[in-house]
From TrEMBL:
Residues 1-17 have a biased composition (Basic residues). The gene is SETD4. Residues 1-24 are annotated as: Disordered. This is SETD4 protein. PROSITE patterns: SET (PS50280). It comes from Branchiostoma lanceolatum (Common lancelet). Pfam families: SET. GO terms for molecular function: protein-lysine N-methyltransferase activity.
Length: 398
């Protein structure tokens, strides 16, 4: 087929479209987000160099409105607009929970979810209304997966996803008698769907704050979850370098970035969960080509890659590998297989290993000792991998 040659104007236009499509779209005119910022300002928030924006690939997040230096505190949210167990216990819900604690005690996630639902139900009359309006309406976490979607997961992931659904259902059922008896204003609105929304807000957005240790709540789980308005708009990146936490000196929840950002960059933190399976289960997203992602490789899978060997030979090799400690970190990342997989493959591929067993053992031990003694030596070990097949060949042919 004859290819049509396009002109310079067409190429320029195409480049502009591509650039436009990869640019963040500032959410400066979004009514809910304007109200959120006004609510924050009215409650002693002194502002920040961040603006909500929609980014291609990661969705809604925050954009730097000026260049940011490494070491800067980019956001400090005052204590009075944090939602934690302390907030719940000092509200009307807290009074009811204290009374009910003789019958049973609920977890931090359960009471925070109830609190959110009660406040959502109050509408504009709620102090938290601007924050609640800024929250997503739906989520992509496994508790929202249909049966078909669950079945598409790998068996182990499927089990974990089903466990999360069971945990949510249990949390909901457990609260029903309390809601029916103590919260008449919520009763008919306390549906599974409504609770799932509040639960998902909690599970995907809470940050850590010092344990509340309330005797009125269940001690089965730590009472550390805290919702931090605005700060919870920051998306995750596995490579983000930032520290965040509650600062007792300033009484604010703060984020300090440890790397510089340019104006219009998306600012990230790391949620602490790194592999895609964890990110998907806990937060409902994955990072394409996640550098922290890996798959585990079993020894039996490695054996399958090699020509058939006798049972005796197989046993000898497995024994040698167990002794050598090489069977840890049998993984493959986007950067390729680990050096341990590489060395196991080399042991498995070499012939007549039992003839020179002690020589081989010593060689492996020395190399492992070198690796664990110094990072620089890892480079040497990598280099030695090129030599290992030659050494192995020489050893097995003495
Ligand atoms: C703490 S919130 C961050 C703000 C959120 N994007 C919002 O619009 O409200 C966490 C949620 O953001 C989304 N998210 C965070 N990091 C992401 C990323 N790197 N890629 C895609 N989605 C991401 C996920 O839906 C996750 O459950």
């Amino acid at each position: 087929m004859a290819s049509k040659k396009r002109g310079r104007t067409w190429r320029k236009r195409k480049k502009r479209t591509r650039e436009r499509d990869s640019r963040p779209v500032c959410q400066g005119k979004d009514k809910e987000l304007i109200n959120l910022q006004q609510f924050m300002k009215a409650n002693d928030f002194t502002g920040c160099p961040l603006k909500p924006a929609i980014f291609p690939g990661t969705g809604r997040g925050v954009m730097a409105v000026r260049s940011i230096k490494a070491g800067e505190v980019i956001i400090a949210v005052p204590r009075k607009i944090l939602i934690s167990c302390r907030t719940v216990l000092s509200s009307r819900l807290g009074i009811e929970l204290k009374k009910w604690s003789i019958t049973s005690r609920f977890t931090c996630a359960q009471v925070l979810s109830l609190f959110l639902l009660l406040e959502k139900n109050k509408g504009a009359a709620s102090f938290w209304h601007p924050y609640i309006r800024s929250l997503p309406n739906t989520f992509t976490t496994p508790v929202y997966f249909t049966e078909t979607e669950l079945n598409a997961l790998s068996p182990s992931l499927q089990d974990k996803a089903r466990d999360l659904k069971k945990e949510l259902l249990h949390a909901y059922n457990d609260l029903e008698p309390f809601v029916a008896s103590s919260l008449p204003e919520l009763d008919s609105k306390f549906t599974f769907d409504a609770f799932r929304w509040a639960w998902s807000v909690l599970k995907t957005r809470t940050l850590y704050q010092e344990d509340c240790k309330s005797p009125y709540l269940s001690k089965k789980e730590p009472q550390t979850s805290t919702l931090v308005p605005m700060l919870d708009l920051i998306n995750h990146s596995p490579s983000a370098k930032a520290r965040f936490g509650y600062n007792v000196n300033t009484s604010c929840y703060e984020v300090r970035v440890l790397e510089p950002y340019r104006k219009y960059d998306q600012v990230f933190i790391s949620y602490g969960f790194e592999e895609n399976t964890e990110l998907m289960l806990k937060f409902g997203f994955y990072v394409p080509r996640n550098p922290k992602d890996f798959i585990k490789i079993n020894l039996s899978e490695l054996f399958e890659c090699l020509p058939q060997i006798s049972d005796d030979e197989r046993k000898n090799k497995v024994d040698l590998l167990f002794d050598s400690g090489l069977l840890s970190n049998q993984t493959c990342t986007w950067n390729g297989i680990s050096w341990q997989v590489m060395s196991v493959l080399q042991v498995l591929a070499s012939n007549d290993i039992d003839k020179n067993r002690s020589l081989f053992q010593n060689l492996l031990k020395q190399v492992i000792y070198i690796v664990s003694s110094d990072m620089i030596m890892i480079t040497l070990w990598r280099f030695s991998l090129f030599l290992l097949p030659i050494i192995a060949y020489k050893l097995t042919n003495v």
